[in-house]
Design a protein that fits this description.
By secondary structure, the chain is an alpha+beta fold. The protein has helices at about 5-20, 25-35, 40-50, 55-65, 85-90, 120-130, 175-180, 210-220, 235-255, 295-300, 310-320, 330-335, 355-360, and strands at about 70-75, 95-105, 110-120, 130-135, 140-145, 160-165, 185-195, 200-210, 225, 230-235. The strands form 2 sheets. It has a 5-stranded antiparallel sheet. The protein has a 5-stranded antiparallel sheet with strand order 7-8-6-10-9. Strand 9 (about 225) and strand 10 (about 230-235) form a beta hairpin. Helix 3 crosses helix 4. It starts with a helix and ends with a helix.
Length: about 375
């Protein structure tokens, strides 16, 4: 068959189209595109880019000019994950312009997160289709760095999808944990908590499911046995509430200590305690402070011993209990306090420098 005629017709049609397009200026094209909606414009560009590689390259270059569209934030990295390991985990999605794990300046150790910047925006979009990735035995999660740590995958319902697993054996690995909990549904993020300094397990972990249904299934049996250890499974948000409540109770139960302690300066803002005041002109015994008026009146109102009923106390006033009849040997002394004992000589008051006569008589 002769296909010469058909080929000529096709060429003539293409020439006619090119001729009509060449007649449209940029202003004309803009005028035609202005009334179109975003969906219509996107459809036109998609069709043009799929048919003409040059247009596709132009679309990619324009979309990739802003680094915010191609820079990813990766969290949940293992402490030992290096920058090279991070780049290796993402290189399957496209050419990487830059990638690094963020290190602590003081200790030189990983801070558990990093950044990946692709050369093209479409590479970043492919990586975001699978935000959860296993890197060095831990599930890490990525999102656009410009969005911070909150994305569509970590929305308001994350608190209802994140579980706390406590009481793990120190030998339980993240892989074992993921294998056990993946039976309930697809896992978005999960890892055993490791000590940053020793890189040893801390005995607990967190698992975040992608759906509420998977979380509900995992919570139906909160008491699980993992590698011979009885573990507790609950929502991570409940653990935070319990921690906050315990801190409040601990603060309330703390004993209030006086701001003034022995050996410390007196707090100038502290109210002074009232002290008893000594009445003006009153004689105050040495070493004692005067009684306040109210206490003095109370003591004055008490009955004296002499007026109390009973022979034992009333005899005190008359002196009968201690008279000469009871104690004859001392009676004379009580009757005459100035009487001298036998053997002592009376004398007048001795002069200064002269010994009493009883000293001289005994010599």
């Amino acid at each position: 068959m002769d296909y010469g005629g058909e080929e000529l017709k096709k060429r003539k049609m293409i020439d006619d189209i090119n001729g009509s397009l060449s007649m449209l200026s940029k202003d004309d094209l803009k005028m035609l595109l202005d009334p179109l909606s975003k969906e219509q414009l996107v459809a036109l560009l998609v069709n043009a880019g799929s048919q003409f590689p040059a247009i596709a390259d132009d679309i990619r270059d324009v979309a990739s000019k802003d680094p915010a569209h191609r820079k990813l934030f990766v969290r949940g990295l293992a402490w030992e994950t290096s920058s090279q390991a991070l780049r290796d985990a993402f290189q399957e999605y496209g050419e990487i312009e830059e990638g690094a794990v963020i290190m602590d300046r003081a200790t030189g150790k990983s801070r558990g997160y990093g950044f990946i910047t692709f050369k093209h925006m479409d590479s970043a979009q492919r990586a975001l289709k699978e935000p959860s990735k296993m890197i060095d035995g831990r599930i890490s999660v990525c999102n656009l760095a410009s969005a911070g740590t909150i994305t569509s995958s970590t929305g308001a319902d994350q608190a209802q999808r994140k579980l706390f697993i406590g009481g793990l054996s120190y030998d339980t690995s993240t892989e074992t944990l993921i294998d056990i909990f993946s039976q309930y549904g697809e896992i978005e993020e999960g890892s055993v908590a490791y000590d940053k300094n020793t890189n040893k397990s801390r005995g607990f972990a967190f698992v975040t499911f992608k759906s509420l249904e998977a979380t509900r299934k995992a919570l139906e049996d909160p008491n699980k046995n993992i590698e011979g250890r009885h573990v507790i499974v609950k929502l991570a948000a409940e653990g935070q509430k319990d921690k906050g409540a315990s801190q409040v109770l601990s603060a309330q139960s703390m004993q209030v200590v006086s701001p003034v302690q022995p050996g410390y300066a007196v707090n100038p803002n502290m109210t002074n305690y009232p002290r008893a005041q000594v009445p003006t002109g009153a004689a105050t015994p040495i070493g004692f402070s005067a009684y306040p008026p109210n206490l003095a009146a109370a003591y004055a109102a008490q009955p004296q011993y002499a007026t109390l009923p009973g022979a034992q106390y009333s005899a005190v006033a008359s002196g009968a209990q201690y008279g000469s009849a009871q104690y004859g040997q001392y009676g004379g002394s009580f009757a005459n306090p100035q009487a001298m004992q036998p053997g002592l000589h009376a004398s007048a008051t001795p002069a200064v420098g002269v010994l009493p006569s009883y000293y001289s008589g005994s010599s």
